Amino acid sequence: MDTHLSGRRAVITGGSRGIGLAIANALAAEGVHISICGRGADTLEAARAELAAHGTTVHAAVCDVADAAAIEGYVAEAAAALGGIDILVNNASGFGPGDSEEGWQKSINVDLLGTIRATRTARPWLAQSEQASIIHIASIAGQAASARTAAYGAIKAALIQYTQSQASEMAGERIRVNAIAPGSIDFPGGLWQQRKENNPAIYDATLATIPFGRFGKPEEIANTAVFLASPLASWITGQTVTVDGGQLLR
Fold this sequence. Notes:
This protein is α/β, with parallel strands linked by helices. It has one domain (9-186, 218-241): 3-Layer(aba) Sandwich (Rossmann fold), CATH 3.40.50.720. It is 46% helix and 15% strand. It has a seven-stranded parallel sheet, with helices on both faces. Helix 3 packs parallel to helix 4 (101-126) and helix 6 (191-198) packs across helix 7 (200-207). The longest helix has 26 residues, at 101-126. The protein starts with 8 loop residues before the first strand and ends in a 7-residue tail after the last strand.
């Protein structure tokens, strides 16, 4: 299936590993020019080299999304490197733990304010695109009670609501805004791999809640992102697509 994405330009925050890198790879495979950011220089360079194998332009920069000046500077730098922006994927997450002050600050500064600032900075370039698409990576934690991750869940819920508000407000500029709410996604070095090693009871209990009997893969989120970013989804905006193997059903 031709997604009609070849030649488009995408900026992906938190794109050096996990879901972000999977989205970057999936878009690059469709011929999209890519910019990614992350906090670790070594991980970022490895991701850049991996993405370069697709043959499209790849730009990568170290950036702390919680730093307002840094994220605004990164997005402007990415737009200059790519010659514009057609797709913005706000994927970076601080994953603030529990209901602690630290948890709230991480979730607010990265997941919410980082998304707001990246979008605000990218908007002038997106408004010039013929097929502009913004995708926020939310979570099923924002769609139901989240006892272990109260701060994270509440901020993801805010992001889901903000997706609707942005979609309404940006429709006049033909900028589509959607969100993806992943369920529990397992990948090397990720949260669920860590829990499998350090807290197998929580890992097993969570696995038992997934009707498909397994954790999700980053590529399954990436496939959804490719669709939402593409003209195939040209009449879809303000929506949150849940990708969780039925996890919320239980």
